[in-house]
Write a structure and sequence with these properties.
The protein is an alpha+beta fold. The chain contains five helices and nine strands, in the order E-E-H-H-E-E-E-H-E-H-E-E-H-E. The N and C termini lie far apart (35 Å).
Amino acid sequence: MNTTRIETDRLLLRKFENNDMDALYLLLKDKEVNTFLPWFPVKNIEETKAFYQKRFADKKYHFAICLKEENYPIGYIKADAGDAYDFGYALRKEFWHNGIVTEAAGALIELLKKEHIPYITATHDKNNPRSGGVMKNIGMRYCYSYEEQWQPKDFLVTFRMYQFNFDGQDDWVYQKYWETSDTHFIEKNV
């Protein structure tokens, strides 16, 4: 599997390129898309380029999500290489509710398994249950909830932490968020 280009039935996952800044700007400027993401919407192309440099450039598992026939980014999907292997995604709202993130996630997960990444984690604001639905659809399981004063937006959020273990250690849970939050708990019926 090529780690710079992954194809699914409908999608092409590839690295962002310099000529993708207008597409990335469309995604990052949208207030609704960015409501539950840990940054404010960008205001211009310069901020988009700075975001790209900080968050996407030279990151091994960060991909633009493109429809195959257009090869134009409509979102992104990523897994960080740090100890949490934090999984995340965003999609332009006109493409929501079509299974695109679920399809892209399946392809990324296959790559991560082949590269012997042991697990991924992901969190979502409890007020964004649709994101939790995506996590469940791709095989992640809810582990616990915790509160965090979310920065830079500076308000209190209850996050739900999900995990997907690829290494056979099904009962092992990433504990860092639990341990660093004074308020943590396990919700029933999540």
